[in-house]
Amino acid sequence: MPAIMTAPEPIFARARAPASPAPFLPMSRAGMDALGWDQCDVVLVTGDAYIDHPSFGMALVGRLLEAQGFRVGILSQPDWKSAEPFRALGRPRLFFGITAGNMDSLVNRYTSDRKIRSEDAYTPNAEAGKRPDRAVTVYAQRAREAFAGVPIVIGSIEASLRRIAHYDYWSDKVRRSVLVDSKADLLIFGNAERALVALAHRLAAGEPIESIRDLRGTAMRVKPGWLPDEAWSEVDSRDLDRPGPLAPHPDPYAMEATAPAPVASAGAADTAQPVRIVSARERAAERRAQRAKTVIRLPSFDAVVADPVLYAHASRVFHLESNPGNARALVQAHGEGPGRQDVWLNPPPIPLTTEEMDFVYGLPYARSPHPAYGDARIPAWEMIRFSINIMRGCFGGCTFCSITEHEGRIIQSRSEASILREIEEIRDRTPGFRGHITDLGGPTANMYRMACKDPAIEAACRRLSCVYPDICPNMNTDHAPLISLYRKARAIPGVKRITIGSGLRYDLAVRSPEYVEELVTHHVSGLLKIAPEHTEEGTLAKMMKPGIGSYERFREMFERFSKKAGKKQHLVPYFIAAHPGTTDEDMVNLALWLKANGFRLDQVQTFLPTPMALATAMYHSRKNPLRKVSADSETVETARAGRIRKFHKALLRWHDPENWPLIREGLTAMGRADLIGNRPGQLVPRHQPAGMVAGACEKKARHGKVRAPCPDKRRAGSSSGRRAH
After folding, report:
1. Distance between CA 60 and CA 77 in Å, rounded?
2. What pLDDT, on the 0 to 100 scale, is given for residue 717?
3. What is the pTM of this model?
4. 578 near 638, Cβ under 8 Å?
5. Are 45 and 88 in contact (CB under 8 A)?
6. 3-state DSSP call for residue 635?
7. What is the pLDDT of residues 655-670, one digit of tens each?
8. Residue 248, preceding bond cis, omega within 30 degrees?
9. d(CA 492, CA 419)
10. Nearest to 564 by CA among 522, 508, 502, 504
11. Euclidean distance between CA atoms 76 and 44, whole angstroms
């Protein structure tokens, strides 16, 4: 196994792009015949429509493998009811690569109220029902039926977020690792480029997949107790972060009586070793070497199913081992007796360099949906066709968001030249372009080129967030590179307007008034999305979000610079109802704040527990994994019952008469009937308008008009896919 900080081979080191790249990667035998192929090296199976654009995972992965000299075919949204559709492109020479698509298949299909959505943004004409629930597992099983013996590699967000035992909101239980359920040979998590390139070349060289155990960012099933070699050691996670009453550590400076040292024998002086002073640098190197050969054993699947405290403990340890600079391997047992398997997770992938990011985004994408879809409307494509992803990752660490688990906290940025070239490509090649670039962003709008000031500090850091409870003094928050990018992008001939669609991290933005003025003056199209998420400190602490004071500072700057520019512009704040740690009183206080500030929210979101997020661990276990977990540690109460969750969501739309009966009922039960009436400080009127009944908002939810949670942020998403956490 490689050392933690082994310098990786650049992903373009062995690239040998074909003389004539395929206009589109083939989706049929006819497409293969047109390219003169008799067999694909790799067949990628996806739950999304195939859009040949770097915002869509299968296109990015497919073009990357094509650039390495491999023949790649795509099975888009195959009928999973039999294995026959999985034989459409023949037997792949190297492996099947399987993903549910840009979103988890269950997040894609169900609302936070477990209602079925009526549309799928990643499907032609938004048709629902074109992918199965738990698509990774279903596709893997069908691919295995189609061609026994072909290696199965799973990846993207659904596999990435289910790589260990995880709480599943839709079945309301802890489920096994998707590796065990799918019986895949390898799982690639996080940013997959490095692992995919190395895997493909090693398989092509004849190495069997069962012997490939040393790739960062991969997980696999191994025999119980397996270790890579004799130099490795295993430690129990409960010895590192004990989930129970904590025994005091011995004080190394305590003055305790010690036994007298034994008297040396006459010949001892001849064998005594000289004292050697070990420098701090040497000690640090020894610790790094030891960590690189250590695996942490998490509580087993059966243990975390039986004990929510152990589940919260496992979640805490998992997140503490997420920095590529110091993360150790993890292992978790699944099953008992002869059928037991261990799920082994290697450390996360080392982030891509700027040169590698430029390589990935500069591949020969067709930048449009496959011609097989004709004139069908694909909403996810319509959303991003004129937008550009300038970076990956997010160091915010918000507990309800899945970016940390998937893309990591280290920002990976493209070069200015690469981004400007893509703007020119959109101008010259994308049908329908009228001069408006709709976004320069990513998971957030304003983390471009931000990084820790010292790589050594970054490699050693174990903080879960770089901006909570305060912005780390080691974090470079300079917005100058982003300001420069905006100005050069606006100067490109043919570009009339650039607006920012990604959500803004306003606690960073207020540190750069020049950036806020640049943004407000040139890049806001009337409305700007930001995400305070809540107003109450108890809830914000569980979210790891800044206090509402940061929002107020940004709002003042936004209004001042809008007025200076002679523009009438507005902020669109997003809030979450029923987040773990939120009380009824917290939601009432938020509703009063919304009313006092004149906010009448349209789209609202009830907390949705997504696999492996820290907030999900709070929801399931009622414990706080942001601190050491024990049976008697802090209890996190959460609105779990459907009616309470509806009450919390209704408070976000305090102005909607359809919600008033539910709000009145809830306020009365809380003993807050004083907030019912028509006075300015009261929340809802005492009487219902004639002919107005409750329940229409639930109908809206059933028809998919409630905002969806975050998808894989480096690619196209739902209407909330570019909000800042």
Report:
1. 17
2. 32
3. 0.89
4. yes
5. no
6. strand
7. 999 999 999 999 999 9
8. no
9. 12
10. 522
11. 8
Residues 214-245 have pLDDT tens digits of: 999 999 999 999 999 999 999 999 998 877 54
The pLDDT assigned to 36 comes to 95
How far apart CA 267 and CA 577 sit, in angstroms, is 76
Closest by CA to 140, choosing from 181, 90, 170, 105, is 181
- Characterize the bridge pairing of strands 72-76 and 95-98: unpaired
Nearest 5°: CA angle at 285, between 283 and 288?
Answer: 110
Amino acid 243: pLDDT: 79
Nearest to 485 by CA among 448, 437, 524: 448
Beta-ladder partners of 44? 74, 97
| Token representation of residue 366 | 């067709």
Question: Minimal CA–CA distance to 120: which of 101, 94, 143?
Answer: 101
Q: Is the pLDDT of residue 690 over 80?
A: no
Q: Which amino acid is at 607?
A: F
Nearest in space to 433 (alpha carbons), one of 491, 483, 388, 380: 388
- Asked whether the predicted pLDDT for residue 17 surpasses 80, the reply is no
> CA quadruple 616, 621, 625, 627: dihedral positive or negative?
positive
- Size (the chain), residues: 725
Tokens of 279: 């420098």
CA angle centred on 563, ends 558 and 565, rounded to 5°: 95
Cα–Cα dist 617/612, whole Å? 7
Structure tokens at 405: 């688990």
**C-alpha span between 337 and 100 (Å, rounded):** 32
Amino acid, res. 7: A
Secondary structure tally for the chain: helices H, strands E: 27, 23
76 sits in which H/E element? strand 72-76
Give residue 283's pLDDT band: very low, low, confident or very high (50, 70, 90): low
Phi/psi class of residue 397: alpha, beta or left (left: φ > 0; alpha: ψ in -120 to 50)? Answer: left
Residue 220's nearest CA partner among 192, 252, 186 is 186
Q: Is 159 helix (H, G, I), strand (E, B) or coil?
A: helix
User: Percent of the chain beyond pLDDT 90?
Assistant: 81
Confidence of residue 61 (pLDDT cuts 50, 70, 90): very high
Average pLDDT over residues 103-116: 95
Distance CA 191, CA 195 (A): 9
- Can you tell me the distance from the alpha carbon of 43 to that of 542, in angstroms, rounded to the nearest whole number? 42
Q: In the numeric block, which tokens belong to residue 669?
A: 């039960």
Q: How far is CA 304 from the centre of its chain?
A: 23
- Helix spans in 293-415 (H): 301-306, 308-320, 354-361, 379-384, 403-406
- Distance separating alpha carbons of residues 539 and 582, to the nearest angstrom: 5
